[in-house]
């Protein structure tokens, strides 16, 4: 895997777009990423890791730091990288989640994170889009790189502040890192799965043992009594786990219980046969006594039936006569009903004649007046009444028509008056519209000046803005001058401190060199191997690092002063330019001009509004007058038409009054005459109906009497009174018939039963005594029940013992099966988890990691020996991890200059820690490269740590980094150490700006490398 190009915008302090050609920078194999502290060097490392994995490099950092806090409006932050992998050339463009302005309205919204992944044929190719899914694209990138993010930051990008993490880690923490990097979690899963299987088998064995104990206890309860010695022998065999003896004792006891049950069954059969014989004798005696009692009851019942025979015969005769009379019942009822109807009709007819005789229509009655004559008189009266119907209606409507005509005439006069009033209103509206026209012309003249007033107002506001801008620039200039003074004082103080420190450092330089002298080593000044009187550090001596720090502070203060001076000069120029624009105009004059223009604009706006209101009012008056005039013309036409209609209605009313007067015929009204005729027709018709009903009732009575005479003769009755006397109520007739039928049925049943041969043979027999027989049967029954219970209990004992024996055998088989199946898994689990017979107590994952860790340590020692001149090497130790039985992955540093003394990595100095950690990281990278199946890690970034090295140590570290270059890798070194600039020609320089943002410059110009 090799990074070729990196492009980003809006990331960290980098607000602009920046492109880094890593391929060109890495042609020499080594390049430097340098810049002041906090300028954004680590941000570039984070951008690389974010592009590939969607996260930042440091575990303590947040992705929130990626997006620039000074992101330009409309700018989308992104990182774009091209890399060469085992799967070909890939390009990835990733956008972090960020806050942006809404496209509509105010406020902000959240821009979503996104990604695009392309496959390229060559670096300049547009490529084929592979994915836009965050998850899919990230997974595809990880497969192409061959490393997880954690592995990447341990092998390709070595983040700032994390060099010593792996070196100083606890064995258990180091184990987790190695497991993630080398993928040995597979062995961890295998060990866990084997432990889980072993636990499961142990649980199954315990469950099988528990089931066996329960089955044995159950068998003991059902097969033996509590005091049986064999039960104690069985319990002892169960406790000792002798399954063969347990099964043998169980089988023997089942056989014994079975034999006992067979003997109990024979005894029960014999007792049951004896009880059956005694019970048969008892049942025969009971049956004979029952027959004797029945014969006695039948004889008594036959005597009672003979005594009631005469009464039953009389009831039978009454039933026969009632049945004949039933056929006469309907004709009798019909004659009775006809007589009542005839009498009622004649009475109604008599009352009707009397009512007519007392009425004004008594002339309807005569000596021979019948229904036909009365109906003719009724018809004549109705015809004359019908001829008056129209006249009656006309007469009834006359008052209403007269009142309606009067009301309509009054309304016509009111409408005429309203038309006159409306004509006056129309004239008044037209006069008001004429009066408003001059006022409208005057207002329109003022409104026409609105555009000119607005233009003057805009001009006045522009002059006011320029005056205010001049005041703001002047205030900023005063503030900038103050900042400039403070920066000047700070710069002078920093320069003075640096000069004093440098003088002190030069004065104590001999003492500083003397502190670095060692016996047997040449003096860098005189070359002598002996140092009899080395110089001493003077009081108040200053270190070189302090001088360099004060020098940097002085340069930084100078930069701040230059920036402050530049800002003051820029503001002075801007203030002069703005004064030229403003001229002699004062702020008060500009504000008064704006106020006056505002008043004129408001007056013109009010005139525009008043003009619109007047125009609308005049239009309303004129349009309303036109509309009312049209309605008035329509109303006058309608008024004339309605007046003619009322005249026609008055003429028709007079004609109808004359017609009604012609039909009075001496009555007060035509309606009264019509009512008299209607009553005469009704009286004649009602009397005709009554007379006709009386005639019909007499005819019906004669007909029903003839029918009755015929039926009486047919049923054998001499007169209707005889038939009525024979009639019975339905309930009584049914009662007597049932009495006769039941008597006959009982006689037949008694005779049939007495004819039975068994009853005939017992005519004079006596009943036997059942007591002794019942007692003998009961004794035999009790004996049989006792024997049956004992036999059933024995059979249940056989069944329970057999079932318990089968369950016992099944549990023994289950225990043997589980143990045979579990044995290989338990043995493998002990081996994999360092328990049981694993004498070394080494788990399978630890064993694998030990081999990998030893390989890493061997590779790291090659680097560390070269970096430290052979003084230090690393050695794996068998440190324990807490209280567990697992061997750890401890690490010691062997100091060969101190008799191969073992030291804790935490005791190393800063520079020694950096060398050891860098060697371990490089060894880890070499091991991962060889372990990952041919993955080539051709790009490496080392972030910081070089400032802790002295020149000699730096030389040896640089030699190792150069060796990486010779192996085909491109190494990027992140540092702000000044000496690194002289050693490395190719550089990425991060340049901070005064506004807190940064930019960068790439340099590939060769520079002479100075030897340490």
From TrEMBL:
A Pfam match: AAA_23
Lineage: superkingdom: Bacteria
Xref: SUPFAM superfamilies: P-loop containing nucleoside triphosphate hydrolases
Cited Gene3D superfamilies: P-loop containing nucleotide triphosphate hydrolases (3.40.50.300)
Domain Rad50/SbcC-type AAA: 6-188
InterPro entries for this protein: P-loop_NTPase (IPR027417), Rad50/SbcC_AAA (IPR038729)
BP-aspect Gene Ontology terms: double-strand break repair
GO molecular function, one term: ATP hydrolysis activity
Cross-referenced PANTHER family: ABC TRANSPORTER ABCH.3
Family: Belongs to the SMC family. SbcC subfamily.
Subunit-level organization: Heterodimer of SbcC and SbcD.
Annotated protein name in UniProt: Nuclease SbcCD subunit C
Native source organism of the sequence: Propioniciclava tarda
């Amino acid at each position: 895997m090799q990074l070729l190009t990196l492009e980003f915008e809006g990331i960290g302090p980098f607000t602009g777009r920046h492109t880094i050609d890593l391929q060109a920078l890495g042609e020499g194999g080594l390049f430097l990423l340098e810049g002041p502290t906090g300028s954004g060097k680590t941000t570039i490392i984070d951008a690389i890791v974010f592009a590939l994995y969607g996260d930042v490099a440091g575990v303590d950092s947040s992705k929130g730091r990626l997006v620039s806090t000074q992101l330009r409006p409309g700018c989308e932050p992104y990182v774009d990288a091209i890399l060469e992998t085992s799967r070909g050339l890939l390009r990835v463009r990733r956008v972090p989640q960020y806050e942006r302005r809404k496209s509509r309205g105010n406020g902000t919204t959240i821009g979503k994170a996104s990604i695009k992944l392309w496959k390229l044929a060559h670096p300049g190719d547009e490529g084929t889009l592979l994915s836009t899914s965050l998850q899919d694209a990230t997974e595809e990138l990880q497969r192409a790189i061959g490393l997880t993010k954690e592995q990447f930051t341990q092998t390709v990008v070595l983040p700032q502040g994390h060099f010593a993490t792996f070196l100083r880690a606890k064995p258990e923490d180091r184990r987790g890192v190695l497991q993630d990097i080398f993928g040995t979690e597979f062995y961890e899963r295998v060990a866990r799965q084997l432990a889980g299987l072993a636990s499961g088998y142990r649980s199954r064995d315990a469950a099988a043992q528990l089931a066996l104990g329960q089955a044995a206890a159950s068998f003991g309860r059902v097969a033996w009594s509590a005091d049986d010695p064999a039960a104690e022998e069985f319990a002892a065999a169960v406790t000792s786990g002798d399954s063969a003896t347990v099964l043998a004792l169980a089988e023997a006891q089942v056989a014994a219980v079975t034999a006992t049950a067979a003997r109990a069954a024979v005894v029960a059969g014999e007792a049951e046969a004896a009880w059956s014989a005694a019970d048969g004798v008892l049942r025969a005696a009971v049956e004979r006594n029952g027959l004797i009692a029945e014969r006695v009851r039948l004889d008594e019942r036959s005597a009672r039936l003979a005594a009631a025979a005469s009464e039953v015969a009389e009831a039978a005769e009454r039933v026969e006569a009632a049945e004949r009379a039933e056929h006469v019942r309907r004709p009798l009822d019909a004659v009775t009903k006809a007589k009542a109807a005839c009498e009622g009709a004649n009475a109604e007819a008599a009352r009707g004649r009397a009512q007519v005789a007392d009425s004004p229509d008594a002339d309807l009655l005569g000596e021979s007046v019948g229904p036909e004559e009365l109906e003719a008189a009724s018809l004549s009266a109705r015809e004359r009444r019908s001829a008056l119907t129209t006249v009656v209606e006309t007469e009834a409507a006359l008052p209403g028509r007269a009142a309606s005509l009067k009301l309509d005439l009054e309304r016509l006069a009111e409408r005429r008056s309203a038309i006159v009033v409306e004509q006056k209103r129309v004239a008044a509206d037209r006069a008001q519209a004429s009066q408003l026209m001059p006022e409208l012309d005057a207002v329109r003249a003022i409104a026409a000046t609105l555009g000119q007033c607005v233009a003057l107002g805009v001009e006045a506001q522009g002059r006011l803005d320029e005056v205010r801008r001049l005041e703001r620039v002047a205030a900023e200039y005063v503030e900038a001058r103050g900042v400039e003074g403070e920066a000047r004082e700070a710069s002078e103080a920093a320069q003075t401190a640096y000069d004093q420190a440098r003088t002190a450092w030069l004065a104590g330089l001999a003492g500083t060199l003397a502190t670095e002298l060692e016996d047997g080593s040449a003096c860098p000044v005189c070359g002598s191997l002996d140092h009899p009187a080395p110089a001493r550090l003077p009081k108040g001596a200053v270190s070189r690092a302090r001088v360099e720090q004060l020098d940097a502070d002085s340069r930084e203060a100078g930069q701040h002063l230059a920036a402050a001076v530049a800002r003051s000069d820029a503001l002075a120029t801007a203030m002069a330019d703005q004064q030229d624009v403003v001229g002699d105009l004062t702020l008060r004059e500009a504000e008064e001009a704006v106020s006056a223009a505002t008043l004129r604009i408001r007056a013109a706006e009010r005139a525009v509004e008043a003009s619109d209101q007047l125009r609308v009012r005049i239009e309303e008056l004129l349009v309303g007058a036109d509309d009312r005039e049209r309605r008035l013309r329509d109303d006058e036409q309608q008024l004339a038409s309605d007046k003619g209609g009322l005249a026609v209605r008055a003429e028709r009313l007079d004609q109808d009054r004359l017609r009604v007067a012609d039909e009075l015929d001496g009555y007060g009204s035509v309606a009264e005459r019509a009512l008299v005729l209607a009553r005469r027709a009704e009286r004649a018709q009602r009397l005709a109906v009554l007379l006709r009903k009386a005639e019909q009732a007499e005819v019906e009575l004669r007909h029903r009497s003839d029918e009755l005479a015929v039926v009486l003769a047919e049923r054998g009755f001499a007169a209707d009174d005889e038939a009525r006397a024979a009639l019975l109520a339905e309930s009584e007739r049914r009662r007597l018939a049932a009495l006769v039928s039941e008597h006959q049925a009982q006689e037949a049943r008694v005779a049939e039963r007495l004819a039975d041969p068994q009853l005939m043979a017992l005519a004079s027999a006596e009943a036997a005594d059942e007591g002794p027989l019942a007692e003998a049967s009961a004794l035999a029954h009790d004996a049989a029940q006792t024997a049956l219970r004992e036999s059933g209990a024995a059979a249940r004992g056989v069944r329970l013992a057999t079932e318990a024996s089968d369950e016992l055998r099944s549990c023994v088989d289950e225990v043997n099966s589980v143990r045979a199946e579990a044995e290989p898994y338990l043995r493998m689990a002990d081996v994999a988890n360092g328990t049981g017979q694993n004498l070394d107590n080494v788990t399978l994952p630890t064993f694998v990691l030990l081999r990998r860790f030893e390989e890493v340590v061997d590779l790291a020692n090659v680097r560390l020996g070269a970096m430290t001149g052979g003084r230090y090497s690393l050695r794996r130790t068998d440190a324990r991890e807490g209280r567990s039985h697992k061997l750890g992955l401890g690490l010691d540093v062997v100091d060969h200059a101190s008799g191969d003394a073992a030291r804790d990595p935490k005791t190393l100095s800063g520079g020694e820690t950096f060398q050891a950690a860098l060697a371990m990281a490089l060894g880890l990278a070499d091991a991962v490269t060889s372990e990952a199946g041919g993955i080539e890690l051709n790009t490496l970034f080392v972030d910081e740590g070089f400032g802790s090295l002295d020149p000699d140590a730096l030389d040896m570290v640089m030699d190792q980094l150069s060796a990486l270059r010779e192996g085909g890798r491109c190494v990027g070194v992140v540092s702000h150490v000044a000496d690194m600039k002289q050693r490395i020609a190719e550089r990425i320089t991060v340049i901070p700006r005064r506004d807190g943002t940064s930019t960068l410059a790439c340099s590939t110009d060769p520079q002479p490398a100075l030897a340490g």
